[in-house]
Amino acid sequence: MALKSKKRPVKHKQNNNMSQYKNPNWWNQENDSAWERTKAAFKRDWDQTKHDVGGHEPDTDQKIGNTARQASGKEAIPPRGVPTYEEAEPAYRYGFGARLEYGAEYPVWDDELETQLKGEWEEIAPARRQTWMQDRAIIRRGWDYDEEEDVVETADR
Fold it and tell me: Where are the alpha helices (DSSP H) in 82-129?
């Protein structure tokens, strides 16, 4: 049986929305580092998604390849229009980190995983207990985000 290295809590600067959330017990420096690399690209992807579904956001012409290149630092990230992504960041971040933690045990999102994530989310984000169904979609998108798959798609260009 392999011993799991002891993980230390990560202390970092958080925006106002993030300061009301706690990290899950398993969150560590590796999760934090991976998230910071991905966050800005996710913001532009979020803006593009809102535009694509009929929102009053400008078309940023953000494709998955742009997101992947921006997340890896290979492409500059243009300025964004409206800063509403920050409200969704905690849920994206949680889903993204949860995949790193639970992905081997749950290679596919299922009811058992969702029940576990919901309970954890309600514990670390108590102010959001009544909004699970809204947050669930964002958490799921963070969970489904796969850096390696996006890099492969980008390399095929």
Answer: 85-102, 111-124
